[in-house]
TrEMBL record:
<feature type="transmembrane region" description="Helical">
    <location>
        <begin position="114"/>
        <end position="134"/>
    </location>
</feature>
<feature type="transmembrane region" description="Helical">
    <location>
        <begin position="423"/>
        <end position="440"/>
    </location>
</feature>
<keyword id="KW-1133">Transmembrane helix</keyword>
<feature type="transmembrane region" description="Helical">
    <location>
        <begin position="392"/>
        <end position="411"/>
    </location>
</feature>
<feature type="transmembrane region" description="Helical">
    <location>
        <begin position="141"/>
        <end position="159"/>
    </location>
</feature>
<feature type="transmembrane region" description="Helical">
    <location>
        <begin position="447"/>
        <end position="467"/>
    </location>
</feature>
<dbReference type="Pfam" id="PF09586">
    <property type="entry name" value="YfhO"/>
</dbReference>
<feature type="transmembrane region" description="Helical">
    <location>
        <begin position="857"/>
        <end position="878"/>
    </location>
</feature>
<feature type="transmembrane region" description="Helical">
    <location>
        <begin position="333"/>
        <end position="356"/>
    </location>
</feature>
<feature type="transmembrane region" description="Helical">
    <location>
        <begin position="20"/>
        <end position="37"/>
    </location>
</feature>
<feature type="transmembrane region" description="Helical">
    <location>
        <begin position="91"/>
        <end position="108"/>
    </location>
</feature>
<protein>
    <submittedName>
        <fullName>YfhO family protein</fullName>
    </submittedName>
</protein>
<dbReference type="InterPro" id="IPR018580">
    <property type="entry name" value="Uncharacterised_YfhO"/>
</dbReference>
<feature type="transmembrane region" description="Helical">
    <location>
        <begin position="302"/>
        <end position="321"/>
    </location>
</feature>
<feature type="transmembrane region" description="Helical">
    <location>
        <begin position="165"/>
        <end position="181"/>
    </location>
</feature>
<feature type="transmembrane region" description="Helical">
    <location>
        <begin position="193"/>
        <end position="220"/>
    </location>
</feature>
<feature type="transmembrane region" description="Helical">
    <location>
        <begin position="362"/>
        <end position="383"/>
    </location>
</feature>
């Protein structure tokens, strides 16, 4: 008997291991096979890069590699983040996944291969951890486990958010956190709950926030399930709360500095007014239960992605009919289900799950929790003596039939993402799902066959959904990456000082992070608002979470230390001998004729490199008058002029003068003598409406136009001398546009062709930069530069000599609470200048300056983490001592 029992136990253990392995391998093989079929790198010409994965995350992944391998100080701060910014929030949201370590083996353009590997592994590990949860709760062997685990791994949320790779750690850790809560009730131990929740809080605080809310809901469910007495439930509650607090303590080293940064960035977009309304008719949600109902149009503001397959959905419905489960458990589950469903359509609850902020694209980001809940309850039904009664099967079948009838009658309402094929495939799998439950009743050991059905259902959804998406080609990404790495490396190898680099081309706003250089553009969800606010004031395109330094002038280039410019040869400068090219490798970003005022210092087949003789050091001696500068009421041109002049002590100096066009020709448009602020209207709708502006510069200086937000490519086309005016779009405020340089006596022609019936010439003015005044002020500001002797990502050291006239150290380091300064070894106060930059009051003479950045609350967070660790160690020591005394 004992030998038989041991053999049975061994067989059980082996079966469990096999199920775990299969649960891991099915998602891995299926998704790897699909990606290979789609020719994703390294297996073809395409890549997994699309939308944010291609426009943001891949560059941050390259920054991750650079930080780990070359510059660990960039963990705290980076000058590749626009003109500089704290990085702890960026790490906490984007980069703390342990899977990212795989990227260390894939440099440059091969990083797409690393992303391929990480993506399929995240699918696989989600299947594995869900299988671990099921086996932990239901030790009896069933080959339904791999099927249910695959349904979880390939749920609608994960397929739709595959491009949001940073979120896919949450579905992996969620089952382990839930299993940890179960252990609180079964063994009274919190170790696993604390471990996995701590890890989730460190990896991604945003998804962890949602999991924390769901953990409270699950604790209520587990309390109803395991209830024996009020005392035991209260004891479990104390352990649950204690474990949650302990997890927060372990993660405090990164959570506390991150929370501070969020107060400077994302928190400022928090909704203060909540509307008590449904965001859409709730029954429309049923359309997302059909396979293949995700596409590009669903990304900005679509319905929640809650696809889990027909079998799991039927099991979820049958769960509530299982009389073998306690009534209080089913009632609690019903309340939680209603709460989750209402959260998917009722605005206040939706906002609550998203920390009181409407998401920028990708709505209902907590839908992975809904998918988990549906599959989990289906599993609970299947592994808890299911009733399989005829009545419950018939009622469930009728409910599903009613849902399909509703969808069929309203197919036209969902035509943007649902077609007849989606509907028919969905009907087929519902029918097969109902038959599967009939089969289970007759043959309980047919789990492997039903697993095949479940896997087929969710894999069909994955293929149909992902077939709707297009991806960046490997050559498009690889060629651009190779070229920008080569260009910036040449500059950095020749000049090891501190400076910024601008480009007239752009693949993404995070190019500087990809190629590890100090730039001016950036895009991320944790971007401090003060930089977009400043960039908007100097006429650069900005938005919530991004800036694009594409519309610089000689003044802003000088002020921000844009010492080098890399220019795509496609937009050849006047007078240059380089041949024009239409090579698509470097997508054009902006039109910068004023680069002809800089010195050409390098060239290859695709780019020219210019050195800016007017670029100021990152720090320089300036007039103390700048401490009182307030440009809140100035327009973009006035702001640039007055800030630059004030730094040199010339508060009344005007660097720009407005100019009139020599000739304006109206074609099929109402004529007006006043251009700025007027509204152009077509006379005839059927004919093109064109305004031609001609101007002949009297000097070789720089000329600029200002464009209000209405003057954008959506409303009109713009050409200068017959060539398309390349400008970044969209922009929500007035931008400064380069118009002419080194064009004395040559007529420059601007044509605006309306795309609509009317066009508002908002803030449309031509300006001329007074080169003489600009040069004079620049020389004044460059007389006392901060000579940088040593620098890394979070520290700048240098020497400066100042006089009484310029005894204020002005830097273009963005102000932050984490910046600390010493002057000649003594602590000095850092002053905020122009609501943007760090400045230090000096005395006349030569000084040694050290600027160092430490994330605010980092040390506080470290102390809290250490205290949490000490509490655990003390508890373990006391427990061990108590056990020893008991034995004695």
């Amino acid at each position: 008997m004992q030998r038989t029992s041991l053999k049975h136990t061994k067989h059980l253990v082996n079966s469990h291991k096999q199920q775990l392995l299969v649960s891991f391998l099915i998602p891995l093989i299926l998704m790897a096979g699909y990606f290979i079929y789609r020719k994703m790198a390294p297996f073809g010409s395409s890549s997994l890069l699309t939308v944010d994965l291609g426009q943001q995350y891949v560059d941050l992944f390259a920054y991750f590699r650079h930080t780990i391998l070359h510059d660990p100080t960039a963990f705290f701060y980076s000058f590749s983040k626009a003109i500089g910014g704290d990085m702890t929030g960026t790490w906490a949201y984007y980069l703390m996944s342990p899977f990212n370590l795989i990227l260390l083996f894939f440099p440059g353009k091969t990083i797409t291969t690393g992303i391929f590997i990480i993506t399929i592994l995240k699918y696989a590990f989600a299947g594995l951890t869900f299988a671990i949860l099921l086996q932990g709760m239901y030790p009896k062997v069933s080959w339904l486990v791999p099927g249910l685990s695959t349904a979880y791994a390939l749920m609608g949320f994960s397929i739709a958010n595959q491009l949001n790779l940073i979120w896919l750690d949450a579905p992996i850790l969620l089952p382990l956190i839930i299993l940890g809560i179960e252990q609180i009730f079964k063994t009274g131990k919190i170790r696993w709950f604390v471990l996995w929740l701590s890890l989730m809080l460190i990896i991604n605080y945003y998804m962890a926030y949602m999991i924390c809310i769901f953990s409270v809901l699950y604790f209520a469910f587990a309390s109803a399930q395991h209830y024996t007495s009020f005392k035991t439930t209260f004891t479990a509650l104390k352990r649950f709360v204690g474990g949650a607090l302990l997890s927060g303590g372990f993660a405090s080293w990164i959570l506390m500095p991150t929370f501070y940064i969020l107060t400077q960035s994302k928190v400022q977009y928090t909704e203060t007014s909540v509307k008590f309304k449904f965001e859409y008719f709730p029954f429309k949600m049923l359309s997302k239960l059909l396979p293949g109902t995700f596409n590009f149009e669903q990304m900005p503001s679509g319905l929640p992605n809650i696809f889990v397959g027909a079998f799991c959905l039927i099991g979820f419905a049958l769960y509530f009919t299982n009389h073998n489960l306690k009534l209080r458990e089913r009632i609690t589950s019903g309340i939680i289900t209603l709460f989750l469903l209402f959260s998917l359509c009722f605005q206040p609850l939706d906002l609550f799950w998203h920390a009181m902020q409407f998401p920028w694209w990708y709505p209902y980001r907590f839908s992975f929790l809904v998918c988990f809940w549906i599959i989990f309850l289906a599993a609970r039904y299947l592994f808890s003596k299911p009733t399989f009664s005829d009545r419950s099967l018939i009622i469930t079948g009728l409910i599903f039939l009613s849902g399909l009838v509703y969808l069929y009658l309203n197919l036209s309402s969902f035509k943007k993402y649902v077609d007849q094929n989606n509907f028919l495939i969905g009907c087929l799998f519902v029918a097969l799902g109902l038959l599967a439950f009939v089969l289970l009743r007759q043959r309980p050991k047919s789990g492997w066959l039903i697993t095949v059905l479940i896997v087929l259902d969710v894999f069909v959804n994955a293929c149909l959904s992902l077939n709707n998406l297009s991806y960046v080609s490997q050559s498009e990404f690889g060629n651009y990456t190779t070229e920008i790495d080569k260009t910036t490396s040449k500059i950095q190898n020749k000049d090891s000082g501190f400076y910024r680099i601008g480009t007239t081309y752009m693949r993404t706003k995070d190019d500087s992070m990809q190629a590890a250089y100090n730039g001016g553009s950036h895009f991320s969800s944790t971007f401090e608002t003060q930089i977009p606010n400043f960039m908007q004031k100097i006429g650069q395109p900005d938005g919530d979470g991004f800036v694009t330094y594409s519309n610089g002038t000689l003044i802003t280039d000088s002020l921000l230390g844009m010492k080098y410019w890399s220019k795509n040869i496609e937009s050849t400068l006047p007078g240059s001998s380089a041949a024009s090219t239409t090579d698509p490798t470097l997508p054009a970003l902006t039109y910068r004729p004023d680069l002809s005022a800089y010195k050409l210092v390098g060239q290859d087949s695709l780019t020219q490199t210019y050195k800016n003789p007017y670029a100021l050091s990152v720090g320089f001696g300036a007039s103390s008058l700048v401490k009182n500068f307030d440009g809140s009421k100035l327009d973009t041109i006035q702001y640039q002029s007055q800030l630059y002049s004030t730094l040199a002590g010339h508060t009344s100096s005007k660097l720009f003068t407005s100019e009139n066009f020599n000739e304006v020709i109206f074609q099929n448009i109402n004529q007006t003598t006043k251009l700025t602020g007027s509204v152009l209207k077509k006379n005839s709708l059927s004919k093109p409406g064109i305004v031609t502006f001609k101007f002949t510069p009297k000097t070789n200086g720089a000329y600029y136009l200002t464009f209000g937000q209405d003057l954008n490519p959506d409303n009109a086309t713009f050409t200068i001398n017959g060539k398309s005016l390349t400008q970044y779009s969209p922009y929500r405020n007035t931008v400064v546009v380069n118009f002419a340089n080194h064009s004395k006596g040559k007529t420059v022609t601007l044509k605006i062709q309306l795309k609509k019936m009317s066009l508002w010439l908002e803030n449309f003015t031509l300006y001329h930069l007074n080169q003489t005044k600009f040069t004079k002020i620049q020389k004044t500001l460059s007389t006392s530069p901060l000579k940088v002797t040593q620098h890394n990502s979070h520290q700048i050291k240098g020497k400066i000599t100042v006089t009484k006239k310029n005894d204020f150290l002005m830097t273009t380091v963005p102000y932050g609470k984490g910046w600390h300064a010493t002057v000649d070894g003594k602590s000095a106060k850092v002053i905020k200048i122009a609501k943007t930059f760090c400045g230090i009051q000096l005395t006349p003479g030569t000084h040694k300056i050290v600027l160092t950045y430490w994330p605010p609350y980092l040390f506080t967070g470290l102390i809290v983490t250490l205290v949490a660790l000490l509490i655990v160690l003390c508890y373990l020591w006391l427990n061990k001592r108590r056990l020893r005394q008991t034995k004695e």
